Amino acid sequence: MSERKQRRAMISRCTGETDLVLTINIDGTGQASVATGIGFFDHMLTLFAYHSGCDLELEVKSADLIVDGHHLVEDTGIVMGQALAEALGDKAGIYRYGSMYLPMDETLVRVVLDLSGRPFLVFKADFKAPMCGDFDTQLTEEFFRAVAFNSRMTLHTEVLTEGNTHHEVEALFKAFGRALRQAVGRDEAITGIPSTKGLL
Length: 200
Prior knowledge:
The chain is of the alpha+beta class and 200 residues long. It has one domain (8-184): Ribosomal Protein S5, domain 2 (2-Layer Sandwich). It has helices at 39-52, 70-88, 139-151, 165-184; strands at residues 8-14, 18-25, 32-34, 55-63, 97-104, 107-114, 120-124, 131-132, 135-136, 154-161. It has a four-stranded mixed sheet, covered by helices on one side. The protein has a four-stranded mixed sheet with strand order 5-6-10-7, covered by helices on one side. Strands 8-9 form a two-stranded antiparallel sheet. The radius of gyration is 16 Å and the shape is globular. The model has no long low-confidence stretch (mean pLDDT 96).
């Protein structure tokens, strides 16, 4: 039996605010090479890669961090979403759905997603701390919205039990990785598109 082709994509985005190149390999080993200039965001992307099993490389050639991190974080979400969509192709043979309850000490979060082709985000979190290190916690929602809409997934994220803001944000990124890992997994019982419509 021939080895399956790895699902990978490289997307670049160059604007007046950022210049990024992102490569993702869905069939990787969870390795990450990222240096955005925002230490906490690097940590979150590294955790996402590890828990999703995706290899992730992000080259930031320039970003207007002198303003704030908004454009960088949002644009990273845009290119990640586009790369996921390209790497998955027609999505034949995947599980499509993924979900994860994930605790981190006193905090509990839930992430549920559907690689449906219908972009939507439900984000329920009320972060008490405005910053985690040099990361504006409001940008957590902006990142997930950009990923969801550019990958065309339905994504529900919720902090169920509140606590330390660092724990809440970190748990969301880990849970997203775990849920995505389920959704992109290959379902041996389905060889075609996982929808009665025949298209996602």
